[in-house]
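Homework help board

Subject: predicted structure for assignment chain

Our instructor gave us this sequence and asked us to write out the predicted structure in token form, then describe one feature. I got the tokens but I'm not sure how to describe them. Can anyone check?
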Amino acid sequence: MAGKHQLNFTVIIPSYNYAQFIEMAIRSVINQAYKAREIIVIDDGSTDDTRAVIKTLQDKSTGHNICYYCQENRGVSAARNLGYQKSLGAYVMFLDADDKLLPNAFEHFNLAISSNKEAEMIFGGYRAISYSGKVRNRQPEKLALNRLHNAAKLFGGDMVGLRPSSTILKRSVMEELKFSEKVHVDEDTMFFSHVFANYNCVSIPEILVEMLQHSGSLRENYQRIVETGVQGVDELFDSLPDLPDLNALKQHVLLKRYLKIGRKACICHEYKVAVQNYVQAFRLKPSSIFSWKHFPRLIKSLILQAL
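My token output:
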């Protein structure tokens, strides 16, 4: 293991009460054909055994630079920003604690960097494993030459394949841009839309990471979504450069947010919240709720909210 060629990569892993997953995430980095300069774990105030798990891995993996920092619970954006502050790598990637890199991820990133010297962000595809065990490979689409067009597609929820865990950034990007600590849902969308609008970005077709959906991620994600609601949308759009039809795009993002909250609330049996958000979506665009994804959930929520 010590003989591996080292890449100037920093892998930052934010974690909150994911002790049962984080060893998998770290080992997926250790098991790459290339060695990362450092693996930085930011414990976002966990109350489980995260610290003990990391200590054991540090003791067993002395050939790898595994760093552990703990902060009070401030959210994933603050954890990622702290990880960057502690980092030294020329390239930075943010791996979620319940995701794992596929074996050749570093090799694909290294080849893409060699072929795209001017690229400031490179991202590949991901493999999603649903609660039922269904596997889907999501390959990113080829980006348009127009940076603002790419940012607009991401804002509107129309871009496939972009996830933090399958993305690598030049250090210079993080020197100028940080994850917003005011927004607690879709903060990835906000950050990466800014990257699209202002930096040279490249997508590659390879599947680089495996993402496991589980009950803990569903409930946590739902709670964050409901707590945030549509807050942060103004901040998202106020910080963008002028785009054609910006207001229409903003309404589209609001619509997507209401539909997302409605769907997640129904899945989590919060039927009153689901109805409230589906009503807001209907007011923005009546036809939006008449789809296979939303209409059955609206009917179910209307029936069950009073029970």
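Reply (TA_rk): Your tokens look well-formed. For the description, you could write something like this. The chain has a mean pLDDT of 89. That's the kind of observation they're looking for.
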